[in-house]
Amino acid sequence: MPDQPHLPTPPAAPEPGAPEPTDREVYRQRLREALRDPAFRAIEGFPIGSDEAILALSDPPTYTACPNPFLPEILQRWREERRQLRARLGLPPDDPPQEEPGLRRRSPYHREPFAADVSEGKNDPIYNAHSYHTKVPHRAIMRYILHYTDPGDIVLDGFCGTGMTGVAAQLCGDRRAVQSLGYRVQDDGTVLDEKGRPFSRLGSRRAVLIDLCPAATFIAYNYNTPVDPDAFEREARRILREVEEECGWMYETWHPHCDAPDRVRARINYTVWSDLFLCPHCGQEIVFWDVAVDRTSGRVREEFPCPRCGALHTKRTLDRAWETVYDRALKAPVRRARQVPVLIHYTLGRRRYEKTPDAADLDLLRRIEESDIPYPFPTDPLPEGEKTRDPMNVGITHVHHFYTRRNLWTLAAMLKRIKALGYPLQAVLQFLWHSLLLGYTKLNRYGATHYSQVNRFLSGTLYVSSLVSEVSLRYAFEGKIERLSSVFSSLRLRTGTTIISTQSTHRLQGIPDSSVDYVFVDPPFGSNLMYSELNFLWEAWLGVFTHNRPEAVVNKTQGKGLPEYQALMEACFREFYRVLKPGRWMTVEFHNSQNRVWNAIQEALQRAGFVVADVRTFDKQQGTFNQVTATGAVKQDLIISAYKPNERLEERVRALSRPGLASSESVWAFVDYHLGQLPVPELIDGKLEVLAERQDYLLYDRMVAFHVQRGIPVPIGAAEFYAGLRERYSERDGMFFLPLQAAEYDRRRLRAEAVVQLPLIVTDERSAIRWLRAQLQEQPRTLGELQPLFMREAQRAWAENETPLELRQLLEENFLEDEEGRWYVPDPNRARDLEEMREKLLLREFRRYASERGPLKVFRKEAVMAGFRRAWREKDYETIVRVADRLPLRVLEEDPALLMYYDNARGKLEK
Ligand SMILES: C[S@@+](CC[C@H](N)C(=O)[O-])C[C@H]1O[C@@H](n2cnc3c(N)ncnc32)[C@H](O)[C@@H]1O
After folding, report:
1. Using CA positions, which residue lies closest to atom 13 of ligand 1?
2. Confidence (pLDDT) at 2
3. CB 395 within 8 A of CB 334
4. Rounded Cα distance, 339 and 401, in Å
5. Greatest C-alpha distance within the chain
6. pLDDT band at 101 (very low <50, low <70, confident <90, very high)
7. CA of 157 to the centre of ligand 1 (A)
8. What value does the mean pLDDT take over residues 142-166?
9. Amino acid 893: pLDDT
10. Which of 133, 211, 566 should be mutated for ligand 1, with most atoms under 8 A from CB?
11. Residue 633, pLDDT score
């Protein structure tokens, strides 16, 4: 277990006669003391911020804007409460008694892998109350938690973002919320699924929420904390009123215009600002709005003429107009791209109008520019990064540059009043304010055809558009107050069921081994989103920043490529593995269209010790789940179900694979256990779908990975494995079952109209052999019969690095021919002989790869695999790394098996 954080000492007893401090004060004092300790602050990933800023943001013990030093004591309490709750509910005890940690009781826990649509609930007002760069709706997570856990169980989300997992865990105890998912809840709390089968039990679960970014945990804290909606609405409106009284003059305009004799004052809703360019031919200033926007349709033209010389331009062929202004906050001149106000949208009475800014509007803006803001605001410089380059390119180099002066003023005026409120109202009002912080900046794009201009920044970027909508205070906040208030009324939350910590998941200090019942995570996906950069703007106002060293991301500026990302993910998964109870599950929600990132995740999972039992994608059109069996770019969300094997299996495998005990029993110990974890195919619409995880080749892959990742030699080859499978287990439709499972499958089979086989795409030697095996298992065939079928299959997608193979060669190396020239699948004994022969051939080929130098462009991947297997057995790690280094990086990254040997061999050499 990694080092525990330094735990603060309790504060001294109060002076006799002094008033008793409240719980909050005691915890705050303890946090203050912890922060003074250099060892505590030295935890890797500790957020960047002063003690005061961290204390101001935190609400200990529930939430700290740093690693939460109260985790051990809270978890201890929860575990005790869980034991009592289980006894009350009549659930069998499943934790070893604490006084006898060595004692292992047979756990009654058993669940099968589960998948639910992770996009369900994206229109829910709770989900939309605060926008984060990506989110999994709490409604979707509830289904997972209900499936895998009992009331009182502890759920962990180590990449919690906005803390939806915490909301879901709490709402599992809310009858109405559970029923709204389509489940029935009986009086005794039993939850029945859509088919009326017992599925779970009503009752809230506890959640541990962790994220590296203070902006994320701040949002998570607010999402998970009960709020008095009336007090919230009252105070929000009061502050809005007060700030309007002070700042309202900055958002006024004359209707219809300043020179009209009957002019009246009106309230601005938003002002549109446009980029200003220079024509490279005639030097004319070009207002983008004037030339590019079609005012009737609202469309923006790609190409437009210079109003003076008529030269045709796109944005890329123009030069920007720049201006240098004195920045009073920085006390220095700054150079920035010029933008000018071009449209004012305002309200008079109940009607809305638009106008071109007139002289009084421009004069007002000038006056505001010259005024001093009487409140503090952040002026931090932007960090170098992948996303921060966009604003820097237009002269936005510091946080306050993202705002027009009046918006900066009103935000700062609001924050000052919010901070005067104290907890708990301060936090929730700050949450409201925080939820509009990005939409109040110059990132807010003008959308001519959009009814509302609120929160129109381009998600996942810091992109400054050529047309910016500068929204005014009332316009942005009023509707939001109402919406949030109704969200808070509908969310019936309790305190004490969630704990939130701001730290890196690669060191889960404070969470004991085997203490968590279920892990649900939606990790960062390679280079998709740069959380620490995107959160910078929020965090600048919070005063506490992400320490991005352990951020799991592919980011050039941070010096992190795919291997660094994979290593960080592996470290995080190792921690999940450590804290999860044996025999329990983790769900990983993953979205990335890049194969290499998907493989990095799989590899990291397996290296951490997890066994993957199911991978699925949700098909939105059909409303069904598809298995993901091949590595191929996946554009939808992937649901990965992985388990931590129980201790008995680990011990058995260790015992059975002691050196000198050349036995294949460790293999079968694993397969027994693994088959027990897999579901029996369900009858859906009269059809049974073949489960890839139960097929021989995937069982073989899982078995090999299980051994290799534990540093145990794989005692048998594929042919012996396949023969053993057939001897020991019941085979049905190409799948393998334990006896009771086979009986269940047979019952379902009797009722099934059809069994649906998985499509098989031939892309390389390995898949070609599987395809041939399937053909020949149906019936023996001649070369002539197979040839046209094979040509059609293999020519479609044969991988470019894979040596093309003749059908005859594939048949000769893997199958047998009868006297009539028909090829057939050999019986197990003959198959073993064949495999030995083929292995020899492949190893000969591999030796060539190992002896030559330079990049290998076209090769037999099966030969590389055979060579890696042999070299691994012989502990010749150097050869594995040398040959792997000759392969195209893409091939290595995209093949999980090759990557596994390579990573492990490299690890051994480094040691
Ligand atoms: C895909 S988001 C999670 C979103 C979340 N599921 C939600 O619904 O809001 C991934 C999160 O991982 C966090 N993260 C990145 N590296 C981390 C690390 N080493 N430890 C903990 N969190 C990390 C990011 O800050 C980001 O919030």
Report:
1. 159
2. 42
3. yes
4. 13
5. 108
6. very low
7. 9
8. 97
9. 83
10. 211
11. 45
Q: Is the dihedral of CA 865, 870, 871, 875 positive or negative?
A: positive
How many C-beta neighbours within 10 Å does residue 337 have? 17
User: In the numeric block, which tokens belong to residue 442?
Assistant: 């110059």
What pLDDT is attached to residue 268? 97
Mean pLDDT confidence for 144-160: 97
pLDDT at 19: 56
- How far away, in angstroms, is 523 Cα from ligand 1 center? 6
Least confident interval from 107-121, 179-193, 701-715:
107-121
pTM comes to: 0.89
Strands (E), 142-194: 154-157, 184-185, 190-192
Q: Which ligand 1 atom is the nearest neighbour of the CA of 213?
A: 25
Ligand 1 neighbours (beta carbon < 6 A): 132, 134-136, 158-159, 161-162, 164, 210-213, 216, 504-506, 522-524, 531, 550-552, 568, 572
Whose CA is closest to atom 3 on ligand 1? 161
List own/partner pairs for 399-404 with CB under 8 A and 24 or more apart: 399/536, 399/537, 399/540, 399/541, 400/329, 401/334, 401/336, 402/441, 402/442, 402/443, 402/537, 403/440, 403/441, 403/442, 404/273, 404/442, 404/470
HEC string of 450-482?
A: CCCCCCCCCCCCCCCCCEEEEECHHHHHHHHHH
Q: How far is the C-alpha of 683 from the C-alpha of 751, rounded, in Å?
A: 8
Closest-CA residue to 312 (of 297, 299, 302, 320): 302
How many whole angstroms from 133 Cα to the centroid of ligand 1? 10
Nearest alpha carbon, ligand 1 atom 11: 159
Rounded to whole angstroms, how far apart are CA atoms 808 and 783? 7
619 confidence band (pLDDT: 50, 70, 90): low
Cα–ligand 1 centroid distance for 211 (angstroms)? 6
Choose among 163, 191, 198, 160: nearest CA to 175.
191
Residue nearest to atom 20 of ligand 1 (CA): 504
Rounded mean pLDDT, 405-421:
96
Q: Of all atoms in ligand 1, which is nearest to the CA of residue 137? A: 8
Tokens in use for 519?
Answer: 């892990």
**In whole numbers, what is the pLDDT of the chain averaged over residues?**
90
Classified as helix, coil or strand, 822 is strand
Q: How far is the CA of 158 from the centre of ligand 1 (A)?
A: 7
**Backbone phi, psi, residue 540, to 5°:** -60, -35
Whole-number Å distance between alpha carbons of 207 and 189: 20
Nearest CA to ligand 1 atom 18: 504
* Amino acid symbol at 83: R
- Residue with the two structure tokens 């392969």: 887
Contacts of residue 295, Cβ cutoff 8 Å, sequence gap at least 6: none
Distance 39 CA to ligand 1 centre (A): 25
Residue 4 pLDDT exceeds 80: no
- How many angstroms is it from 44 CA to the middle of ligand 1? 16
What's the angle, vertex CA 357, arms to CA 354 and CA 361, rounded to 5?
120
Query: What is the CA angle 236-240-242, rounded to 5?
Result: 120
Q: In whole angstroms, how far apart are CA 144 and each of 112, 138, 192, 197, 870?
A: 11, 10, 14, 16, 41
Give me ligand 1 centre to Cα 509, in Å. 17
Strand stretches in 179-251, DSSP E: 184-185, 190-192, 198-201, 206-211
The pLDDT-based confidence of 42 (bands split at 50, 70, 90) is: very high
